Amino acid sequence: MAESHVLQTLLVYFFQLAWPFFGVEARGSVVVQRWEDIQAIMRSAEDGSWKPLPLRTPRMSFKMLLDALLPKKGSRNYFAVNVGAREGLFHDPVYPLFADGYGGLAIEADPQWYETLTANLAEVNSSKAVFIVKEKAQPYTMKEVLDRFQTPLDFDCLKIDIDSIDLPILQSILQTGYSPKMFMIEVNYDFPPPFQFALEFDLECKAKFSEGTFGASPDAIFREASLRGYSLVAFEAMDPESETVYHEHNMWFVRNDLLGRSAHDPAVTWRGMVRMYWAQFAMLPCLHVGFYLSTGKWMCPKHQIREIFTELGGNHTSWPLAKMSHYLSQRAARSMFYLSSWRHQLERRGCTKACRISVAVTRTD
Ligand SMILES: *[C@@H]1O[C@H](CO)[C@@H](O)[C@H](O)[C@H]1NC(C)=O
Ligand SMILES: *[C@@H]1O[C@H](CO)[C@@H](O)[C@H](O)[C@H]1NC(C)=O
Fold it and tell me: Where is the signal peptide (predicted)?
């Protein structure tokens, strides 16, 4: 125990000190931003094996996806919805669309951004159809907000990045008749597959995202998106050109029909998602969840996967991480024990009493 404590501490320092070098590393890694190359990653994730995928860093944009998948102008409606717009510009995939003549909504709840948001978007309002919605995004009012601005049911692009109830907001949009052609959603990557973790909506809940209680895990988002007829196209973990290289943590999805597939036939299966997840996130430290428990143990679900694998009887320590995720999903009931204890910790220290975190473990045969 003491030894592993020291090791964990060293690892933390290693990541903190080594981070600038990872940055250099990321800058040197193969950045992938053409649709053909993104598709190549999706295809290799579906080759039926559990092998680690080659290290490639997707850099995504709505423009790239639109140009590749909807090249004909008539196939678009030039409407985008930005939930969690902040100042509307920095690292924002919707801004280039507005700058290109798109109309749409920028929804933002925090008044500290209003002045810059208003100024930034006034500059790219050539469509005269960009509107700022100064409201808190809530599941029960999303439909009313979209209806109010005559949002087309199949609007082109959706972005959700609110550091809190991102998944309930996505659900409220997809379950009330809207089906955007593609969407980007921020993800809490500290929880690896097969763990489904999501902060639920409650008006009284105040969650500290800096303590890890925010958003939803990749597996929880993947499940919702798959049920609604979307294919995962990429995890975006880093922006190699940014000062803070690990600024991005997004999942990108495209509606299945745009990929020539039926609603129930996503291009990337659960196995592919798991492999794409580990390819992007294995080497990153926990973003927010990592902290010491009162037992002296370090809590970072992503880095505990090997330990859990071993505790559940796994003895092939050379297995790829994706295969370990799969092993855990075959023992979902026992894996649930770990997820429950993480939830307990987060409910104790990461949010107020009203907060609800929903958890589940993906089961496979
Ligand atoms: C864009 O133009 C429309 C029409 O003039 C206006 O109602 C709207 O407030 C403008 N949006 C922004 C962000 O300036
Ligand atoms: C490792 O696990 C396999 C089953 O997956 C089992 O047959 C084997 O005996 C185990 N080896 C050890 C050293 O526990």
Answer: 1-26
Q: What is the pLDDT of residues 57-90, one digit of tens each?
A: 899 999 999 999 999 989 999 999 999 999 999 8
- This prediction's pTM: 0.90
Q: Atom 8 in ligand 1: which residue has the minimum CA distance?
A: 131
Residue 24 has pLDDT above 80, yes or no: no
Axis-axis angle for helices 35-45, 62-69 (nearest 10): 90
The whole-number average pLDDT for the span 2-24 is 43
The reply to whether ligand 1 has any atom less than 6 angstroms from the CB of 124 is no
Ligand 1, atom nearest to 106 Cα: 13
Expressed in angstroms and rounded, the spacing between residue 54 Cα and the centre of ligand 2 is 29
Confidence of residue 18 (pLDDT cuts 50, 70, 90): very low
C-beta of 125 in contact with ligand 1 (< 6 A): yes
Q: Cis ω on the peptide bond leading into residue 194 (within 30° of 0)?
A: yes
CA–CA gap between residue 365 and residue 357 (Å, rounded): 26
Task: Report, as an integer, the average pLDDT of 211-232.
Answer: 93
Please work out whether the CB of residue 121 comes within 6 Å of at least one atom of ligand 1. Answer: yes
Q: Please, what are the domains in the chain? A: 2-361 (3.40.50.150)
Per DSSP, the three-state class of 183 is strand
Angle at which helix 218-227 crosses helix 166-174, to 10 degrees, equals: 0
Residue 274 beta carbon below 6 angstroms from any ligand 1 atom: no
Q: What is the side-by-side order of every strand in the sheet holding 250-255?
A: 130-133, 103-107, 79-83, 157-160, 182-186, 250-255, 230-236
| Mean confidence (pLDDT) of the chain | 89
